[in-house]
Amino acid sequence: MELMTKKQEEQLVKNHELQEANPDKDMKNKAVIKLFNPTGLGTWYASEYDPETRIAFGVVDLGFPELGSFALWEFEKIKLPMGLKIERDLSFEPNKYTLTECLEMCKNG
Question: Partners of 67 in the beta sheet?
Fold first, then answer.
C-alpha cells in the first residue's frame, strides 16, 4: 500500500508551500494522512510534506506524542514482523482534525 495517494500528496505539498511562504504564521494545517505501525508502537499524522526531501511534518507518537518531522523514505525501508510495513489508515478522514486535536487523541488513547 502507498503511504499516501496522489491527491493527499498534493494537499500535503500545498500545506508545506503555504507554511514555507509564511514561516512566522501558524497556518493551523489539518492532518491529511494517518500512518501507523500495525504490529505495535508508532502513529504519525502528517499535515505537510516536502517532496524534495521526502520529509513530512505533523504529530509523531512513539509513546510520547509531540509535533515533529519524519522521513517518509525511511518508512519504506522498515521491515516489520510477518512481512508487514508501516500502513496508511484508510478510515482516517483527511482535513478533519488539527494537529492539536491529533496530539490530544494520542494522549487520550
Answer: 59
Torsion of CA 6, 12, 15, 17, to 10 degrees: -70
* 98 bridge partner residues: 30
CB-CB contact of 86 with 35 (8 Å): yes
d(CA 64, CA 85): 21
| Rounded Cα gap, residues 1 and 101, in angstroms | 26
Whole-angstrom distance, CA of residue 65 vs CA of residue 79: 23
Q: Tens digits of per-residue pLDDT, 58-100?
A: 999 999 999 999 999 999 899 999 999 999 999 999 999 999 9
**C-beta neighbour count of 91 within 10 angstroms:** 5
- Predicted model pTM: 0.93
HSE (CB half, 13 Å, CA atoms) of 58?
33
SS3 25: coil
Angle subtended at Cα 80 by Cα 4 and Cα 102, rounded to the nearest 5 degrees: 45
